[in-house]
Amino acid sequence: MLPSAEAVAEIDGAAPGAPGDALLASTRPVVLRGLVRDWPFVQAARTSFEAARAYLGRHYRDAAVVAMLGAPDIEGRFFYNDDLSGFNFAPLRVKLDAVLGELAGHYANPAPPAIYVGSTTIDTCLPGFRGDNDVDLGTRDALASIWIGNRTRIAAHYDLPDNLACVAAGRRRFTLFPPQQLENLYIGPLDLTPAGQAISLVDFRRPDLARFPKFEEAMRHALVAELGPGDALFIPSMWWHHIEALDPFNVLVNYWWRQSPAFMDTPTNALMHALMSVRGLPPEQRRAWQELFRHYVFEADDATAAHIPAHARGVLGPLDDEATRLLRAQLLKRMNR
């Protein structure tokens, strides 16, 4: 039997709509019970699924969305096909009202097709929705997205930005792991992914411990939270999270933001470049480059380039928009030669 996950720390009765700067800089997940309980949409969702669907319909302006559709036998788990050469679902570009109607047609179906609209910009598909349904994040420049579906299961993955996930309709169960559990989660391909992020290959509903024995160790470090309409979960950058929607109709609103300047590139690009240029070196050379990365990147501080005059430090000095733009142009020129 797998170890039981520890509950995520909770804040009860959080001030509606205002989580606060200290919490949003946390390095551990936190549940905020009732953070968005006063949203009109949440109130509608607590009345009925149909009331929630009607509320979304009043804001819909004929925009198309990308929906993922899977057969009933995938049991809501959007994943790869059997040999990991593709996926077990099909992406479709459709109107949101058609998706909402399809979901409604399966409320009472015990084995419905898996239907999921993921990471859709709210202001594009539901203009005006955030006028009455929003969270005050202070000065953070956050991307607000909506996620709609039925009983879906989203494999464990990480996101680079910090994430405030607000459950607006239905219930969701989150299982989270700190970044250090990477090797125990059995991550799949980096360059062929269901939705852009690499995912765990472990089926959380039926974990195959013969194939993935170290998953048991991952569960010793797992945190779990079950959220209902009005509750929110703060997920720090790089924490792995598996999400299971538990009702026939579920809506999540989330906010993503980064704690870094906008000119910074995604570290994923650095990882992919290192796979191409460093991983294949002889072991002793890899260790030498490991030391260089340690010195210039992972443990860099004010002393790293203090022996070089400030005007001559180049990329070892502080970077800004202009310096980053020049550096990116140099890298592209070198890669394209």
Fill in the keyword field for this structure.
single chain; 337 residues; JmjC_dom; 9 helices; 2 domains; Jelly Rolls; nine-stranded mixed sheet; alpha+beta
Shape: globular
**How many discrete structural domains?**
2
Q: Quick one: how many beta strands?
A: 15
Largest sheet: 9 strands, mixed
Tell me the name of the CATH class of the largest domain. Answer: Mainly Beta
CATH superfamily of the largest domain: Cupin
C-alpha Rg, in Å? 22 Å
The unreliable regions are none
Q: Please write the string of helix (H) and strand (E) elements.
A: EEHEHHEEEHEHEEEEHEEEEHHH
Mean residue pLDDT: 94
Q: Given the structure, what is the number of helices?
A: 9
The helicity comes to: 10-25%
Here the CATH topology of the largest domain equals Jelly Rolls
Strand order in the largest sheet: 2-3-13-10-15-8-7-4-6
Q: How far apart are the termini?
A: 55 Å
- The CATH architecture of the largest domain is Sandwich
The helix-and-strand class reads alpha+beta
Domain JmjC: 115-272
Protein name: Cupin-like domain-containing protein
Pfam families: Cupin_8
Organism: Massilia jejuensis
